[in-house]
Each structure stands twice: as structure tokens, then as C-alpha cells.
Amino acid sequence: MTSPPAIAAQRPLAVLNAFVMAYVILLPYQFVVGREMNFALADGLMMFALLTAMGRLKYRSLVWSGWHYGIIATFALGSLVAVLRFGRLDRYELVNKDAGLMLPFLVYAAITTAVTRWSDVRRILRAFVLTVAAQNIICVGGFLLAYFAGVEDPFARYGGLRLSGMLLDPNAYGGLLVAAFMVCEGASMGVDPLFGKGQLWLFRLSLAMGILFTFSRSAWIALALSLLLLFVLHTGSALRLMLIVVAAVPCVVVLLGSRFLPIFEEMASRPKQVQGRFDLIHAALEQFARHPLLGGGIGNFRLSEGEVAHNTAMWFLADFGIVGLVVLAGFLGWFFVRAWIAYRSAQPRQQPLLLALLLAHTAMFGLSMGIEAFSQRHWWVILALIASSYRLTVLGRKAGPAIVPLPAAAA
């Protein structure tokens, strides 16, 4: 029987875990509240949670690195450079970049505090896939209803031709779907799959159709990159999945009819937008050439070009210089290394969870080539789960198979 002190020690984590689960469930929902400003239900919940549970956060040394502090320092230095150059910090950067960075770090701290067992990792991943797939079924249904019956679709943008779900942006929504798709695939392997065959096939169909209907090339790149990694690690599983996709494409074309092909060709190509993205990359390199070391300051590229860079690396290069790009690479690379170490060292029962996280992280890295994905909420959930899984793997190795696992509040 658990002693009263042990129960009391577990209660704060139970409350925080409940907030984390609610945050994950609300991830796909976002609303426009003003010019250049959206409100995410997950953010509102987490801000309330952190106000009431800030004292329950714990510093887990294994989930933090110098790269984390390097990211914070990069944004602080970039803000200082911007103030010195422009005399002020624009509200967009202050709210969306500087203040916007605080919440992902607090969410990261909350998740790495709440996750003390492998069952926590499993539960969060399951909730993530379920909530994304469930709302996407509704969104895809609305898209098809609009396509066949001409009913107005609240879940699409660009004249109703690109699925955007409740995230408002087709590219961001496509990245969310790809991350959920790869988590679903990776974690459904092994002796203890995250989902049974019936659920797996339903989620595959729903998420794959959603990814297609976003017409997001960035999401397609993310999917291709993560499938390439899956091919390297699990060739047979990747080949089966690719064959399923190849077989499903003609079925989708037949279902949607002949008028879908011209729409697909137009939305997939968009040559003017492709040229525009290359122009933005060229502009970012020009900005970097002017300020190579520390960049032009946060907001420099947006204010100079009138729009964001649509490429995370180019944004860092233009605004934070080579120093910022090195810090970004080190930060993301740290999670790749930790995910790989944990994947290779974990018990066979836990390896599919690590594979799912590694695939999702790779997908988000691919997405970042087409949009500024650094602040995407679900990416930070994946990062926190990678770090937590690495910590659990290290603690498991230290404990050894014959030792009772550490209590939930330990370490």
C-alpha cells in the first residue's frame, strides 16, 4: 500500500499531468482574435495551469542542455540588436517571437516534469494522435462536402481549396498531420502497439487524406523525409506503407472525379509561389551578407521584405546571423542525438515510442524548410517527450533490471 507521504508527493505531478494532457488535446484548435494575432486554446489553458502550478515544475538535469540556454540567449541578443538598429522592438516580434518563446519553454518544462514513467510518454502520444485524427476526420468530411455539394467549408483556405483545419494555416496544419501520422506509424509497431489494426487503418486514411488536401509542399517534404528515415530503420515497414499509398492514390482520384486532377496540378505546382520562396531565400542570404555574425536583429527580415522568411534556417540566418544558425542546429541536433541514443538503448517494448518520436522530429525538421516552424506547439511537445524518454532510458540503465523503478517524484 502506498504511504501517505508518497501519495502527497504524487499529487502535484498528477495535477500537472492533467494540465499537460489537456494541452495536448487542445493543440489543433486556434482562432483569429485580431490583426496578425491568433489565439490557441492550448496556450490559454497552459498559461492558467502554469500560474497555478508554477511551483510544481522540477529541473531535470538530463532534459536540459547548453543549447536550450543558447536559444534563449540568441533571442535576447537578437532583440538587443534590433533595438539598437531600429530604436524599438516591433510588437509582432515582441509578442510572437520573444514572449512567444517563453510559452514553449514553459510547456517543455511542464512536460519534462510531468513525465516520470514510460506510461506517461505512451499516454501523451496516444492522446496526441487521437485528438488530431478525430478532428481531422471532421475537417476532411467538411472538405469533401464542400467539394461535392458546394457547401461552405470553415476548415479550408484559399477559396476552399486547401485544408487548414482549426490551425488556420494549411502548412502548419499539414505539419501537424504529418507528425501525428508518423507517431501513429512508429508507435504501432512491436509487441505493444499504440493502436490496434482497425484504429491504425482509420487514422492512416484520415491523416493521409488530410495531408493530401492541405496541398502543402512543406508537409509533403516533411512526410517524404520521415518516410526516408523509416525506410533506413525499418525497410519492410516503409515499403509496405509506400505500397499502400501508391495503391490508394488511384482510388482517391476515382472517388474525387476528373475535375480533381486540374485542381491538384494547380495547387501542387503554384509556380509563382515557388519562385517567391526562392526569392525569399535569396533575400535572406543578402541580409546575412550584410550582418553575418549576429544578424540584423529579430524582425529584421520581416521588416525589410514585408513578410516572413518561410524557412526556419533562413530566418535565423537573416535575423541572428551565423551564431544564431549554429545555435539552432545544435539545439535541434541535440534532440536527434538524444532520440537516437534512447532508441538504441531502450528496451524492445519502448523502442516503438522512441521510433515514433524520432520520425516526428524528422518530419518537423523537414517542415521547417518551408515555414518558420520553430514555434509550432506540437514540435515542442515532441521535443519534450524525446528529452523525457532519454532521461527514462538513462535512469533505467542506472537502475538495472533487478532494481525497483524510481518513485514518480524522484530524479
Q: Care to count the β-strands?
A: 4
Low-confidence segments, given as residue ranges, are 1-9, 402-411
Strand content: under 5%
Order of strands, main sheet, comes to: 1-2
Mean pLDDT: 86
- Helix amount, in percent? over 70%
Overall shape: globular
Cα Rg: 22 Å
Can you count the helices?
Answer: 15
Number of domains: 1
Taking the alpha carbons of the first and last residues, their distance comes to 22 Å
Structure description:
The protein has one domain. It has a two-stranded antiparallel sheet with strand order 1-2. A two-stranded antiparallel sheet has the order 3-4. By secondary structure, the protein is mainly alpha-helical. Helix 8 (217-233) runs antiparallel to helix 14 (351-367) and helix 13 packs antiparallel against helix 14. It is built from 15 helices and four strands. The chain starts with a helix and ends in a 12-residue tail after the last helix. It is globular and about 60 Å long.
